[in-house]
Sequence to fold (466 residues):
Amino acid sequence: MEKEEVKQKIYALVEKSMGKKKLKSSDIQKTVSAEAGISRDEVKDALKDLIDDGKLIYTYFGGSFVEIPPKE
Amino acid sequence: MPRKYETPLLDELEKGPFPSFVTEIKKAAARNDMAADELGQLEKSYRERRGYWKHGGIVGVRGYGGGVIGRYSSLPEEFPSVANFHTIRINSVSGFFYTSKILKEMCDLWDKYGSGLTNMHGSTGDLILLGTSTENLEPIFAEFSSRGWDLGGSGSALRTPSCCIGPARCEWSNIDTLDINYNLTQEWQDEMHRPAFPYKFKFKTAGCAVDCIASIARADCSIIGTWKGTIAVNQDEVATYAKNGMNIKEEIVDMCPSGCMSYDGKELKINDEDCIRCMHCIAKMTKALKATGEKGATILIGSKAPFVIGSTLSWVIIPFIKMEPPYDEFKDLIRKMWEFWDEHGKNRERIGELIIRKGMREFLEFIGVEPQPQQIKEPRRDPFFFWTEADLQK
Fold:
């Protein structure tokens, strides 16, 4: 699977869970790797890109989560 | 000109013979608005007996999931300069060796971008800069990283590893704590800056069982230097200690936790087979006693401050492991432990709590370590090894 496609899957997962459940990085890795049939390292790598591009951010609410940044 | 507050309650903390954090905040408050409002808010907290800080949230620098702890005043109208008062953790140097030039440079930067207040060092081991605004986070990160510094760990991540001064200044060190600390920090940059654990994880490396860095009480994984050989005894030096007034029976022999020593007034004898390498005698009679033979480390797991369950001390997992670069055996072991934690850990559950919940047997089986007598925490205590149905059928 292309990296761009993995990134889209990750973003869609985070978007879908917004307001319902905060996802940890490991939740994303487990879910996307199982759904897409790829390794967790590939998911981790794609997630890294999304974070570095600012499309997703880390937040802390008693634990560290991955979320979509708030609109300015 | 910073605002001034009356602080009768905080002033009480300046009395007495000890250094006072209030005095230091007052010095900073004379020239810094943030420090001044911080002082005002703290006085109010003391007066009204409640805290006015909120923490967490979404602040940070791009690409990093740790290193910045968002902190906000719940009284922003009353204390506007501390409406945002974020903490920055800077990855400290192994053994905390700094030059005064570097420290001055850091303080100048912090006066420019923050409150001027620091914490040298936090209990995690980081160099902590207390209090800056959200808009200053990226600029200050750029300034520090351009000088070769990086952020430390925070959140559900590997925290900045720390160590004792080790062989740099201490003859008792059985391992190169500084190199181990640096190597682990470099190896696990992602684990430190991109939080992916169920909760925090801390490494602390001590060169010997004296454990100056208190790794046994403060680290999820304590690496404590030890040795396999005997303790060499210089009887002439033993005689000198006795001559200089040391009561060797009371201070050394009777204090040996495994009772492996004897002294007849002339000769100090050690039954090395019974020695548990606690370092008490060596620390007391440095000139007379010396550890010999193969050097390495004991790996312990699970200490933490009170949270879900009460505070715990680390527990021996590996009695002896060679600790030589590139430390591959140790790193593989840690990766297995993290895998177990990732697989079974609940949100905000430390690895030690998970082991207590799931059982040591399951943990040891997963990481591929054989049960050993040294892993038993206390004598006559359940050795945590239970037979399964499958074992019985064998």
